[in-house]
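User: Fold this; tokens only.

Assistant: Input:
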Amino acid sequence: MRPMSVNPNEKPEPDEKPDTPDTGEKPEQDVKPEQAETGEPREASGTPRLSKDPEPGARPVEGGETAPEAAVPAPAAGAGAGDAPSGRRRLADALWPPRVTRAQLVVALLLFCLGFGLAIQVSSTSESSALRGARQEDLVRILDELDDRTQRLEDEKARLEKQRSELESSSDQAEEARRQTQEKERQLGILAGTVAAEGPGITLTVTDPVGAVESDMLLDAIQELRAAGAEAIQVDGVRVVADSYFTGSGDDMRIDGTPVAAPYVFKVIGKPEDLEPALNIPGGVVQTLEKEQATATVERSTKIVVDALRPAKRPDYARSSSP
């Protein structure tokens, strides 16, 4: 047999494969053992691909390989540094809603009460102080008046001590006691208004053209005069004593129920140098009356006669405790 000639330029036909049903699945590829273990692709030459530099945050493990740490979620698309909460926003979140404890509430309440009390005290002091803004000469006059009151009290103390020493040293103590009792009765009669009195003092005249003077204004004048050392006071023919009272105003002014009318004339026995400054102090009687469109004038005199009398009243229940 002749041998078959083979054309070198002719390509061999591929071997026919058996028909297989087309299921849509790709045929499985053989996986090399190295790829199954490491899961890394290999180069075409069969050598494993070199790993890149370790990523930041990765920690080395045995064998020189690096293992990534816990995964950090990446910022969302479009998020930038401007989306981070600002300091003002964080402060607002920390302050609201408030987190208040019971101890904080108690402390806040105590501080509020303390501040409220201090505010009231400062306000009342600033409003009621009549010496704020007073002139220097007015302050000097007030201090002199206080010194005079202190001196009067010292004189009264010395007089009482003298009477006691006279009683203790007198040979006839009964006669001395009788004399002092009569003198004391005369003094009490002047204070009670049952006997007439005379001496140096002042005359205070209050005119009220608009009828704005109230009874409490006249009573304030009486109190100032008594504090300055007045020993006997008479207003429009009415003797003013410890239990006297003022009622009404304007055309219906009364003292102890007796009607009096403007101008009101005060006859006062006492030391003129003490009585007049007591009425002219800043915020005193004269300034108060002038604010009500009334006029107050003071005149000193070496002799003032207080002759209005009050009937002596016998007490209903009080009795003398001396034997």
